[in-house]
Amino acid sequence: MRRAYVESHEPFPRALAQALRWAGDSATIHAPDTRSIEENRLHELGIRVTSPSSKSRFYGRPEGTVVATFLNLSEVLEVERRGGIEGLVVVHANGPSRFPGVPHHGPWVTAFNPEHLGGQEIAPVASAPAALRAAIRDLTGLAVGNQGLIDKRERSEVIHALTYLRSRGFELDPDALMVEALRNEWGGTGPEELRQIALDLNKGKQLQFDKRRLRPERLDEWAATKD
């Protein structure tokens, strides 16, 4: 699937024009709610407009090449999860905030390497340590690939692995871990949930897990993984 973005420093009218040129004749504008559509007069452009909000009169599923306007990271990933589209261009995409923990589009940009159409280029998220990359890869079983961390057993394994590796001195960068989940095609909201688990552990929260599900040897094997 084709992907692109226009970063938020580009003035919106010009950013939208760039995105629509890239999208071509199959464009569908997808915006979060009625207000954002009407305030920016998106419904007056003669292009199909949809919104993920069931409260919006524009509620609908986007098709063709989606011009995702004003969507946050989770909303962009929801478009990715739906599938059945030809392309996706994000307007306006945001890089990291000066406030730690605030979601931004950097993980999506890093995982999928979309084409940069305008505004400032969003720097890729620094890679997670090899030990954490190995853990995320090995924890990507059938259940995680299909539904993310809905099942408490898979969630327990992830919490156990991150808790252990953090205790061994490996830094948990929530964005870097999210990138790995996206690259390993975690299903559902698994990438977002993994990011939140890392945030919670970094805050010192004691998340519960079943120690019996992961063998100590497996944990040690991950910890010993090198680049």
What does this structure look like?
The protein is α/β, with parallel strands linked by helices. The chain has two domains: 2-118; 130-223, AhpD-like (Up-down Bundle). The chain has ten helices and six strands, in the order βαβαββαβαβαααααα. The chain has a six-stranded parallel β-sheet with strand order 3-2-4-5-1-6, sandwiched between helices. Helix 4 (106-112) packs parallel to helix 8 (174-183), helix 5 crosses helix 10 and helix 7 packs across helix 9 (190-202). The protein is elongated. The two termini are 29 Å apart. The model has no long low-confidence stretch (mean pLDDT 96). InterPro entries: YoaC-like_sf.
Attribute tags:
10 helices, 43% helix, alpha/beta, YoaC-like_sf, 227 residues, 2 domains, AhpD-like, 6 strands, 12% strand
